[in-house]
């Protein structure tokens, strides 16, 4: 874990900007969690927060009415149990569909599985597997590409010679890439190709249409890394792309599975103290498997002559399988205190693994011995290819802000590994940023009141002593130090409309040519 020393020479904002999907709750006393429960959004606690031993908080997954993140602001924070934000981040992409259609330009679709228009030649096309969807989030894994169709000819009953039909297998779709956050997720593997291989002995083949195997789709590309290694930003892990579907043959294959969800986000800000002896986990989920390829087979004997050999059937080869889905990226953990820190336990922001590739479709066989009059024939139609694995998700980001970098501050076991898959996802980032002075390090003799606090619609400021200056600048900051309100005060008091501010903790700074002072307030 790299330690980076920063010194802020002026007041820094320690509020936050609430996400619209997240609720914000203000609690005016100590708050203790002693039973397992789901939580999400922002909790502004005017006392201490304690998570007891043996108790788990499950961060509600990202969805329409829940944000996949948990923010806690308190005087002191004690984590003795577990905060579980695994798989609570951005969604993985849907899996791709299997190939299902059988088409024919000569109207012989039924000839794949039964005797149809046996005295006429014709062509048959089998549908490829389809790629899944990209994951969600700024570093989402991208989807692969569709496979291609397989083509061939049906059987034909002639006056002097019967010809067997062979239809090649289509290709499975490419896999979903792993998602990125603290590092780069890996690319996905390709889908498996279908087979056009046929080993024949003394068997005439119908050939009005070429026997061409479908090609497996190319695997998806990885998403982009986002966020910073030591900045005050923290967010959710992105989702991996969905797996590819398998191709059609005599039998149907299967659909690809969904991509892995990203890890959630946990933000803890203790003004006086933070102690962690339990665990905080925001792992990305593993991607699902690729779809299986459809198995080949043969029709029954379709001609009326007494020699019911292999030449009276249409044989289909095995189709290619889809490649696996991408793993989700690890999420974010942000821990900060202006006072003392004792951060042990386990901090885990690992990425998810890529899903396994689907299983190939098998081909058909025939071995016929009709004796002296009918002779012997044989055919072995090939198997398709297995799909490759999906891409792996990267590790997330862990950031710890403390006033002093002492060895005893951070003793936690930290995991930010990328997942495994077609290739491994990159490791995320973990930083302890120390030398951070925090809010309130600048104190002066300026006397002023801020009321009501908490406030809902109107916030009042009144200067009561300590300055001969007639003009003051008033600035309100959000979580990342961005100014959200500025006013030049020419009088000793002012009232501000904060009705449209998101609920939470803000920082207000009052300064003039000689003095500067910072306070906090809660908007509920």
Describe the model.
The strands form 7 sheets. Strands 1, 2, 3, 5, 6, 8, 17, 20, 21, 25 and 27 form an 11-stranded parallel sheet that branches. A 6-stranded parallel sheet has the order 4-7-9-18-22-26, with no helix packed on it. It is elongated and about 120 Å long. About 5% of the residues have low confidence. It starts with a strand and ends with a strand. With 524 residues, the chain is mostly beta strands. A hairpin with a 4-residue loop joins strand 33 and strand 34. The protein contains 1 helix and 34 strands. It has a domain of 77 residues: Sandwich (Immunoglobulin-like).
Put the structure in a nutshell.
The protein has one helix at 371-374; strands at 2-5, 24-27, 31-33, 37-39, 41-45, 48-51, 56-59, 69-79, 82-84, 102-103, 123-126, 150-153, 156-157, 162-163, 165-167, 198-201, 265-276, 279-281, 314-316, 332-337, 340-343, 346-348, 365-369, 376-381, 397-402, 413-415, 429-434, 447-451, 458-465, 472-477, 483-489, 493-497, 504-511, 516-523.
């Amino acid at each position: 874990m790299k330690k980076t020393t920063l010194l802020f020479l002026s007041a820094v904002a320690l509020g936050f900007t609430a996400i619209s999907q997240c609720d914000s709750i203000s609690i005016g006393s100590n708050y203790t969690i002693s039973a397992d429960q789901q939580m999400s959004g922002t909790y502004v606690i005017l006392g201490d927060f304690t998570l007891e031993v043996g108790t788990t908080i499950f961060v509600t997954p990202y969805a329409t009415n829940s944000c996949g993140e948990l923010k806690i602001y308190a005087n002191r924070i004690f984590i003795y149990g577990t905060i579980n934000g695994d798989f609570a981040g951005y969604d993985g992409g849907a899996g791709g569909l299997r190939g299902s259609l059988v088409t024919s330009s000569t109207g012989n679709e039924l000839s794949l599985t039964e005797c149809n228009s046996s005295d006429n030649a014709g062509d048959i096309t089998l549908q490829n597997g389809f790629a899944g969807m990209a994951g969600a989030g700024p570093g989402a894994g991208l989807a692969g590409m569709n496979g291609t169709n397989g083509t061939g000819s049906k059987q034909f009953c002639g006056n002097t010679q019967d010809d067997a039909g062979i239809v090649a297998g289509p290709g499975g779709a490419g896999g979903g890439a792993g998602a990125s956050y603290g590092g780069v997720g890996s690319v996905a593997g390709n889908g498996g190709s279908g087979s056009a291989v046929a080993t024949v002995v003394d068997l005439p083949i119908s050939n009005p249409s070429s026997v061409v195997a479908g090609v497996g789709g190319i695997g998806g590309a990885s998403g982009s890394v986002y966020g910073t290694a030591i900045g005050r930003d923290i967010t959710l892990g992105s989702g991996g792309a969905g797996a590819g579907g398998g191709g059609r043959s005599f039998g149907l294959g299967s659909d690809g599975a969904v991509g892995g969800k990203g890890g959630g986000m946990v933000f803890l800000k203790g003004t006086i103290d933070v102690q962690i002896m339990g665990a905080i986990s925001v792992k990305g989920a593993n991607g699902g498997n690729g779809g299986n390829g459809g198995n080949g087979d043969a029709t029954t004997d379709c001609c009326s002559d007494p020699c019911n050999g292999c030449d009276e059937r249409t044989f289909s080869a095995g189709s290619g399988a889809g490649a696996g889905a991408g793993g989700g990226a690890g999420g974010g953990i942000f821990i900060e205190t202006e006072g003392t820190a004792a951060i042990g336990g386990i901090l885990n922001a690992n990425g998810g693994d890529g899903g396994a590739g689907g299983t190939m479709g098998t081909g058909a066989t025939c071995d016929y011995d009709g004796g002296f009059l009918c002779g012997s024939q044989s055919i072995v139609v090939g198997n398709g290819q297995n799909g490759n694995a999906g891409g792996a998700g990267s590790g997330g980001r862990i950031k710890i802000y403390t006033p002093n970098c002492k060895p005893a501050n951070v003793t936690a076991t930290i995991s930010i590994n990328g997942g495994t898959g077609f290739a491994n996802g990159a490791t995320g980032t973990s930083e302890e940023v120390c030398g951070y002075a925090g809010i309130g390090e600048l104190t002066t003799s300026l006397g002023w009141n801020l009321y009501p606090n908490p406030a809902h619609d109107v916030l009042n400021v009144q200067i009561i002593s300590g300055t001969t200056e007639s003009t003051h600048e008033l600035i309100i900051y959000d979580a990342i130090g961005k100014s959200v309100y500025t006013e030049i005060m020419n009088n000793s008091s002012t009232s501000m409309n904060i009705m449209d501010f998101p609920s939470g903790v803000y920082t207000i700074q009052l300064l003039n040519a000689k003095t500067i002072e910072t306070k906090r307030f809660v908007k509920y």
